[in-house]
Amino acid sequence: MKIELIERLSKDSSQKTLLCVLDGLGGLPGPDGLTALEAASTKNLDELARLGSQGRTLPVGYGITPGSGPGHLALFGYDPLEYEIGRGVLEATGIDFVLGPDDVAARGNFCDIDVNGLIADRRAGRQSTEITANLCELLSQIEMNDIEIFVLPVREQRFVLVLRGNELSALVSETDPQIEGARPSVCEPLNGSVAAERTASLIRRWVNAAHDLLKERNQGNGILLRGWSVRPNLPSFPVIWKTRAAACAVYPMYRGVASLVGMDVINAGGNLSDQIQGMTEQWNSFDFFFLHYKYADSAGEDGDFAGKVEAIETFDRYVPELMELNPDVIVVTGDHSTPAVMSGHSWHSVPTLIAGRQVRPDEQVTFGERSAIFGELGQFPANELLPIAFAHAGKLAKFGA
Amino acid sequence: MKIELIERLSKDSSQKTLLCVLDGLGGLPGPDGLTALEAASTKNLDELARLGSQGRTLPVGYGITPGSGPGHLALFGYDPLEYEIGRGVLEATGIDFVLGPDDVAARGNFCDIDVNGLIADRRAGRQSTEITANLCELLSQIEMNDIEIFVLPVREQRFVLVLRGNELSALVSETDPQIEGARPSVCEPLNGSVAAERTASLIRRWVNAAHDLLKERNQGNGILLRGWSVRPNLPSFPVIWKTRAAACAVYPMYRGVASLVGMDVINAGGNLSDQIQGMTEQWNSFDFFFLHYKYADSAGEDGDFAGKVEAIETFDRYVPELMELNPDVIVVTGDHSTPAVMSGHSWHSVPTLIAGRQVRPDEQVTFGERSAIFGELGQFPANELLPIAFAHAGKLAKFGA
User: Fold this and answer.
1) Judging by beta carbons within 10 Å of its beta carbon (0-12, 13-18, 19+), is residue B242 exposed, middle or buried?
2) Is A269 left (phi over 0), alpha (psi -120 to 50) or beta?
3) Residue A124 confidence class, pLDDT cut points 50, 70, 90
4) DSSP string over A229-271
């Protein structure tokens, strides 16, 4: 649904919607010919499937393998081809850094540079997060006129660089050539604007200063920057939907994407039990909850089919507690598929179910990829899932007389 | 998928994709209540259906009956509503005539004109191809300043007229009123441009000269021209997909459409056996093969249900030989439906199957219109089929971080 139509049709409702995202939920058959979701023992999700209806979402489009950013934007109702989150912004957001509207962010790597100035290891031997934290502190000493600079450790060799000031632009080139044996690229403006020229010149000076500070080191004596970006101009989720929306996610990146669209972030602790407690405490303060569960994706990324089965079974055990919150509408889906046999995200559709009072049931009694083919909801773009859910929650007015 | 997105996400892959197009594949039930595809004995296609997944493509849109041009453009990944191939261009392409970028082409008919100057028979009694060839040679004598003129026989009373020169335009009116008993129309410019004015004037002079040369004849003493068009500006298939693409088609029109999008045409001989030999010889030189098989459509057009069954069974017998080529991804589909009971193209969806390593299987074990309803791929626009196939061949990078 287009944003303009959402704004026109959305209305207040006292009903509560719970969107459960099992990251990387969809899969491909494992050793016994069943997918992880099909193989998992999920009596509670199956009961929801029996009461509700199923379908299959396409996160970005046919044949397109989504990153986590677009996968979640789609689940929040935004067309991920229209609204893009750059890598630098996603990374900054992923460490809970609150980006200002004019901040320019990049994802950085510490790397190894040999005596000839060539990149020997793009990841500096995957140096520890601790070393990266120390080096970020060191690089934070670099000062430049007029702009504020943030150098923030992420994990292992990764860090985020944020430039804050007037007249900055993200239309500058990356310094990471993305191959070893090459020289780090020189940052250049990507258009003729004053802001791009100025930003590229600031970055060149900053990179030189950084390399000066790092040059005596054996490992991590260089830096590579990519994914220059500014915060996307996303219409506010609470405003367009006239809702009070809360995000409950253990991993910062998902809190980050939710806060980029204007959701409030509530306490998620470190596991599903903590998350349910956090939602219970805030149940009366919000009418939309986004619950993120990471471990189906993690196991899939690791190629661990049994681990993915287990992660899904763990989630299933918490479904009764989620139902005790008494959501009017509950949705269970994923942001994309992560088949363990592929050890990565994939383009395949995502099994999705919805349960609630006005759901039209289908004949399926288990939740899974093959059941979902026969589901009431059919196959549809993931960014239409939220309108469907909110329709069931009484949040969409009639269109036309 | 939009062309811009294809260009952004496509990447090299060593995997090979084989697109088999059974022209006019989809149908309606025949005497026993089964469609030709359902009635045909197709153990090899059924085995692919068992291993792979099925769906249904919509070539142009709901309710739209496609011509062969748009049907194939969609299968090659182009939105057929955005890219149109004019009738003149399609006809020229169909006789292996290589159009220059500025050539203006029309489809011509020889017709019978009576003593009052009215059209008595729009098709000159469907005069033989041989007579048409002789008349085209006669009309090739007409010379005009500054432009080159090609008059080329097609089949029966049909021919192609191509004008080559500077400042020509296809924005001129047709001379074929498409009814008998009317006078041939006079060619007029369709806008006020110098090129359209000039082209219309050249065409009027050419038509008068042609009628002078033909006036003594009893049959075929006139000509009618329609479908003025120039080569469409189609983004190059090999460039946008970063692939080496080969077309293997017995009928020239399909070679023509493939070459309009930039595919290489390889030796197809006169039948499936020759085609497979041609592909075998070129297997290492390309990573995408378009194999065209005409006879399902021909039988459908003739209203010959049994013939269509037989044509599909013939194709099925060659499937093992195709599989010996060892494609990583194989797709079997049609460019449109041609139900024998309609003796023509139709708007119905087209049963489609895909098999390969990362295909998510469904529960279907036979290939057919009704099986495809329950397939993993669902119902989708035909121009999304190639992105799906190429995703399975590892040719599409992840979208977003």
Assistant:
1) middle
2) left
3) very high
4) E----PPPHHHHHT--EEEEESSHHHHHHHHHTTPEE---TTS
Burial of B149 (0-12, 13-18, 19+ CB in 10 A): middle
**Under a CB-based contact definition with an 8 Å cutoff, are residues B175 and B226 in contact?**
yes
Q: Residue B76 belongs to a domain with what CATH number? A: 3.40.720.10
The A-side interface with B (CB below 8 A) comprises 28-29, 35, 56, 60-71, 80-81, 84-87, 90-91, 227, 339, 341-342, 345-349, 369-370, 373-374, 378-379
* Cβ atoms within 10 Å, residue B398: 18
Q: Compute chain B's Rg from CA coordinates.
A: 23
Q: Are B203 and B165 in contact, with CB atoms under 8 Å apart?
A: no
State which residue of chain B sits closest to A253, comparing Cα positions.
Answer: B401
User: Tell me, what CATH number does A185's domain have?
Assistant: 3.30.70
Complex ipTM value: 0.90
Please give the DSSP secondary-structure letter assigned to residue B286. -
B96 and B207, same domain (yes or no)? yes
The answer to whether A318 touches A272, Cβ cutoff 8 Å, is yes
CA distance A30 to A64: 22
Report if residue B102 sits inside a domain.
yes
Q: Is residue B68 part of a domain?
A: yes
Calculate how close chain B gets to A113, using CA atoms only, in Å. Answer: 26
Kindly report the average pLDDT of chain A as a whole number: 96
Q: Which of A85-94, B61-70, B278-287 has the lowest mean pLDDT?
A: A85-94
Across residues A395-400, what is the average pLDDT?
97
Per-residue HEC secondary structure of B320-361 comes to HHHHHCCCCEEEEECCCECCHHHCCCECCCEEEEEEECCCCC
Would the CB atoms of A378 and B374 count as touching at under 8 Å?
no
Do B366 and B354 share a structural domain? yes
Tell me the H-state helices in A96-235.
129-139, 194-214
Residue B199 identity: T
B380: closest chain A residue by CA:
A62
Give the domain range for residue A35: 3-83+234-392
At position B13, the amino acid (one-letter code) is S
Read off the tokens for A307: 């681990």
Considering the domain architecture, whether residues B40 and B138 belong to the same structural domain is answered as no
**What pLDDT, on the 0 to 100 scale, is given for residue A242?**
98
Q: Per the structure, how many domains does chain A have?
A: 2
* pLDDT tier at B252, thresholds 50, 70, 90: confident
Domain boundary among B229, B247, B267: B229
Boundary residue ending a domain (B229, B252, B283): B229
B374 in the same domain as B241: yes
Closest to B184 (Cα-Cα) out of B228, B140, B222: B222
Bridge partners (DSSP) listed for residue A110: A223
Farthest-apart Cα atoms in chain B, separation = 74
Give the C-alpha separation, A28 to A346, whole Å. Answer: 10
Specify whether B223 is located in the same domain as B173.
yes
Instruction: Using the structure block, give the residue that is written with the tokens 């009635």.
Output: B39
At B273 the three-state DSSP class reads helix
